[in-house]
Specification:
4% strand; mainly alpha; single chain; globular; 72% helix; Probable membrane transporter protein; 11 helices
Length: 304
């Protein structure tokens, strides 16, 4: 059975799309990440135009993040003050990112830009994750107690306009979360990702936020930034295919529930190592696609 996507202007098998959504949802539930950085490349591999894949995937991220942040609101593990500054920076970043996306679309370079961004970004993140998880596995064999030392960078302490964030127990400049939020919004607009797998480490190891409020605050800002990104993409670029988004959501919800149960049975170090290998595999597939010549090359001749 074929299902026609009105914006992508192509027929798809709805069961394949829902299976892809379920697979990424399973990984999202298992690893605690949004999954946009995996879903967008998979849609491209399936044949969905990259611009449509980026614009549509943000709809699934919004839905999954709303579900996640609701649970954290009940537990009161969301720093609204910190989240507000992250949303402020992310909103500016998403607006600029959508404008860059529109400009590249007009020149016909957006597909190449998306693929190159994923190759560079996933390669760097996957490599760092694999290195960190390998070190964690090695440290796990050493039973000697080790004191944990977490120091904020000197440049963070030197930033002006410092203020108190009571829920996060921090006294830092709001310029820092605005800056990181801007980067997250830029990624959401250009790459179709929520950015949680970047923002969470930033909150933990750079901003030094308490672990109990990190995930909830990250999901809080993702909801608003990706929702804004979806609206901007739909209005400025017409790249949001709601039919495709609904199919992804159905599969993602089912997969996330199964993944959350499976993740409980694995050690954190093993989970991070497995996720790193998956990220590097997707990066390699994108790199091969860029290196190979097109199956149907063509040339454009000028009219004299």
């Amino acid at each position: 059975m074929q299902f026609y996507l009105p914006i992508a202007e192509m027929p798809v098998d709805p069961f394949v799309i829902m299976t892809m959504g379920a697979a990424v949802g399973f990984l999202s539930g298992m690893f605690g990440v949004g999954g946009g950085f995996l879903m967008t490349p998979l849609l491209i591999f399936y044949g969905i135009p990259p611009a449509i894949a980026v614009g549509t995937e943000t709809t699934q991220i919004v839905a999954s993040s709303v579900s996640g942040v609701t649970a954290h609101l009940k537990r009161k593990t969301v720093d609204f003050q910190m989240g507000g500054f992250l949303v402020l920076g992310g909103s500016v970043g998403s607006f600029i990112g959508v404008m860059i996306f529109r400009a590249l679309s007009a020149t016909g370079q957006i597909d190449l830009m998306i693929s190159l961004s994923y190759v560079i970004f996933l390669g760097a993140i996957g490599g760092l994750m694999l290195l960190e998880s390998t070190r964690a596995l090695i440290r796990a064999r050493d039973t000697r107690p080790r004191p944990r030392k977490r120091r904020s960078p000197t440049w963070l302490a030197a930033m002006p306009f410092a203020m108190r964030f009571r829920s996060s127990q921090l006294y830092i400049s709001p310029l820092a979360p605005i800056m990181f939020g801007f980067f997250g919004g830029l990624m959401a607009a250009i790459m179709g990702v929520g950015g949680g797998f970047i923002m969470v480490p930033v909150m933990l190891y750079i901003l030094n936020m308490p672990t109990n409020v990190v995930v909830g605050t990250s999901l809080f800002q993702i909801v608003f930034v990706t929702a804004l990104t979806t609206i901007l993409h739909a209005a400025a670029n017409q790249t949001v295919d709601i039919a495709l988004g609904l199919l992804l959501m159905v599969g993602g919800v089912i997969g996330a529930q199964l993944g959350a149960r499976a993740g409980i049975k694995l050690r954190a170090e093993h989970l991070r190592a497995l996720l790193a290998l998956i990220v590097l595999a997707v990066c390699a597939r994108l790199l091969i696609g860029l290196a190979l010549p097109p199956s149907s090359p063509f040339t454009v001749h000028g009219v004299s």
